[in-house]
């Protein structure tokens, strides 16, 4: 069965069953024919008894119609002795057909009762064993046994066929569950599974799992490289940023600087502080370390207003209009620095990719909703089609995703034909990415 298809296997079995059914049907036909022959003999004997007993008188001589095969007698007195002896040993009632086997002959005796004449009219048919009709009873028994044997054979055949099929399928199912649950791709298919369809399916599943494991391994390697790169970058940025921050602080303290220089240095100090916070956040994220900072109470309108002020200076030429609606104000509990990074990245992205110079911001208690229109030329829908391209808006959105995941803040992104929107919930919710 090594090269046996399940279809061929079933076809062979069904053909065998069909052949057995044809044989059984043929035997039934023969069986019915033999029964019919026996019933026909009985019918004709009754028919002859009725007709002849009416036609002949008890004292009349009865003509012989079929010598050595049929005999007719009125009453027990005219009945030959050999028939009397048979009836003496096995008496018959009126209209009861009897069969006797004597010296190689089958003798049918019917004592037909004629009511009008109140006398028995004996109808006797004689048959030699050499003729086919006289082996009816023997054939009946033989055919009965053969039919039972064939029926048992078909039932056993079907049970064995069903067992062979279910055993291989159950074995294949257990093997498939094992390699998918335990990732044992190298596990060989049990030898009990021999159908080509199951073997081919097993090979396809193994190839698919191998490719999947290879992709997962590649993905893990890429993530490790990414983590190493960002961790190294953040670590390397800490020292120069600290030097810039210290130098900026010293220059701000000098009185020789003009007001314009003071403003420029103040912006530089804020930018440096923000970069330091971002660098520290990246290090904690990639090292999967909890933040060492203490939680604060902060208000979303305050953080949004600070970010808007910076964006108005940065995107001065675009003259972006910020439509801010505060429906309800409620304090949030968490790391204010991380919340500021998240809000700053989302609003800056909205300013950068908006094509209508308008950004809508809604605040409702601990929820923040930011949306902007974008041009069809940007094809942002295509950029957001899969996980690898989801962060088409730069590192900012990717960083937001990671921070929200770590802080268990709800973060949703929704893209329509011409609008990009982001929803943040700083309340006590589990993180969910849509």
> Tally the helices: what do you get?
9
Spatial strand arrangement across the major sheet:
6-8-9-11-10
Rg calculated over all Cα atoms: 52 Å
Question: What is the mean pLDDT?
Answer: 77
Q: Which band does the percent of strand residues land in?
A: 15-25%
In helices, the fraction of residues equals 55-70%
Instruction: Note the gap between the termini.
Output: 51 Å
Largest sheet: 5 strands, mixed
- Helix and strand composition category: alpha+beta
Q: How many domains, in number, for the residues?
A: 3
SSE pattern, N- to C-terminal: HEHEEEHHHEHEEHEEHHEE
Shape: rod-shaped
Number of strands: 11
Uncertain runs are 378-394, 429-434
Note down, in words, how this protein is organized.
This protein has a five-stranded mixed sheet, with helices on one face. Strands 1-4-3-2 form a four-stranded antiparallel sheet. Strands 5-7 form a two-stranded antiparallel sheet. The protein is of the alpha+beta class. α1 runs antiparallel to α3, α4 runs antiparallel to α5 and α7 runs antiparallel to α9. It has nine helices and eleven strands. It is rod-shaped.
